[in-house]
Design a protein that fits this description.
Pfam families: GDP_Man_Dehyd. By secondary structure, the chain is of the alpha/beta class. The protein is 38% helix and 12% strand. The protein has a domain at 94-111 and 120-295 and 333-357 and 397-411: NAD(P)-binding Rossmann-like Domain (Rossmann fold), CATH 3.40.50. It is built from 14 helices and 13 strands. The protein binds nicotinamide-adenine-dinucleotide.
């Protein structure tokens, strides 16, 4: 074969075949008419474009509606394991997921930014809150604050030491419900939070009606069933007659298990144990407050608690009864300080236990002198033999609450006592005004 022939064949090939390299691809001619519909055309001939559009749409969708998962490490912060070695964090529960979602929704409507915690009192989300013992002294002040915040509140109370008058100003409000019920019997309700206060708190009452263990068990059962957050109001009595002063949460106490006060002290200790077991075993979100002596309007008159005793005696012109030598100490916190602490604890991320009390320490004699100053300088002091198992010293160390809840009491005894006196005067001398909560609100945060 000569070279001409070769050249000729190459040219022929070039004319008849598609170019091999470096030539732009001819656009595939598709006969649109042969396809049944534009959709078919898109699916068959523009698959890549369809794919791209799909990816973009999916990205946009998941960006707008992210899959709701609990925030990483939410409720799992151990702030200072050195100072608070047994501070336990909450376990994630069903409720955490619900809460995260509803907060998101709330934020969408309120235009609130996602980051950071909203200060107490400014939350827009309405909670359904159960307050057991809500017709009692502390409970009724707590109910006032929750109602003020816009929550829906259910009070469960058997009125053993509580009074309807303490909450009567909320009756008729559609966000408020009052149920007469004894917490030793189970009850079914749908709420987001349970503040469990139901329990007689003074020796004259709790000796006759110890409800701590069974009542707490029932409320924990309810919390588990409905995924509610549960707060137990425990007491400084869990420290018994303390050998450590002031009392830190890590102190295990010195309690007589068979004494006259044991049904209360040991009852609350058992209640704390149950609360922690439900937390660890069933994943319930729990909070534990150890409340120190609290006073204020709506306290039971004549229930044997020292502040109410002194105030009532001074108003009735009776001698102030001091038990023992009067050198035993107590610390007294005004009720609005306690309520603030309880709400911070409930809304915060820490299980506790937290001491909630005023660390200013007074001997019984000093307290009697303040009462004389505030009410009646001529009031006499009468000494009586001390009661069994009366603790010698009681003063909270509140470092933990200061650091983790950013909480501390702000109302001094000299400021708080006169507010209580106004209320006691109304009740002892029969003033027609029954709602005595107005004094309290002047100190609420
Ligand atoms: N006030 C304090 O100084 C103090 C100190 C430490 C702990 N606490 C705790 O705080 C909580 C409230 O105390 P408080 O001072 O308001 O007492 P409180 O007696 O005024 O209130 C207790 C309320 O619980 C109700 N209650 C009692 N047993 C009940 C039952 N079985 N079922 C339903 N309701 C029941 C009472 O009727 C009352 O309304 C208690 O748990 C108490 O142990 C209070």
């Amino acid at each position: 074969m000569d070279s001409h022939e070769l050249i000729h064949r190459t040219l022929t090939n070039l004319q008849t075949q598609e170019p091999l390299v470096d030539s732009p691809k001819p656009t595939r001619s598709v006969n649109v008419k042969t396809l049944k519909s534009p959709v078919q055309y898109l699916l068959r001939s523009q698959r890549f474009v369809c794919l791209l559009v799909g990816i973009v749409m999916a990205a946009l969708f998941f960006n707008r509606f992210p899959i709701s998962t609990p925030p990483p490490h939410h409720h799992l912060t151990l702030h200072d394991p050195v100072i608070f070695p047994f501070e336990s964090s909450t376990l994630p529960t069903r409720r955490v997921l619900f809460e995260a979602r509803s907060d998101d929704v709330d934020d969408q409507f309120s235009g609130r930014a996602n980051g950071g915690r909203v200060p107490l009192g400014l939350k827009t989300k309405r909670l359904r809150v159960l307050v057991t013992g809500g017709a009692g002294f502390v409970g009724s002040h707590l109910v006032d604050r929750l109602m003020e915040r816009g929550d829906s509140v259910i009070v469960v109370d058997n009125f053993f030491t509580g009074r309807k008058e303490n909450v009567v100003h909320h009756l008729g409000n559609p966000r408020f419900e009052l149920i007469r019920h004894d917490v030793v019997e189970p009850i079914l309700l749908e709420v987001d939070q349970i503040y469990h206060l139901a329990c007689p708190a003074s020796p004259v009452h709790y000796k006759f009606n110890p409800t701590n263990v069974v009542g707490t068990l029932n409320m924990l059962g309810l919390a588990k069933r409905i995924g509610a957050r549960f707060l137990l109001t425990s007491t400084s009595e869990v420290y018994g007659d303390p050998l450590q002063h002031p009392q830190v949460e890590t102190y295990w106490g010195n309690v007589n298990p068979i004494g006259v006060r044991s049904c209360y002290d040991e009852g609350k200790r058992t209640a704390e144990t149950l609360t922690m077991d439900y937390h660890r075993g069933a994943g319930i979100e729990v909070r534990i407050a150890r409340i120190f002596n609290t006073y204020g309007p709506r306290m039971c008159i004549d229930d044997g608690r020292v502040v109410s005793n002194f105030v009532a005696q001074a108003l009735r012109k009776e001698p102030l009864t001091v038990y023992g030598d009067g050198k035993q100490t107590r610390s007294f916190q005004y009720v609005s300080d306690l309520v603030e602490g309880l709400m911070r604890l409930m809304e915060g991320e820490h299980v506790g236990p937290f001491n909630l009390g005023n660390p200013s320490e007074f001997t019984m004699l000093e307290l009697a002198k303040v009462v004389q100053e505030v009410i009646d300088p001529n009031a006499k002091i009468e000494f009586r033999p001390n009661t069994e198992d009366d603790p010698h010293k009681r003063k909270p160390d509140i470092t933990k609450a200061q650091q983790l809840l950013d909480w501390e009491p702000v109302v001094s005894l000299r400021k708080g006592l006169p507010l209580m006196v106004t209320d006691f005067k109304h009740r002892i001398f029969g003033n027609p005004r029954e709602d005595t909560g107005t004094e309290y609100s002047s100190f609420s945060a």
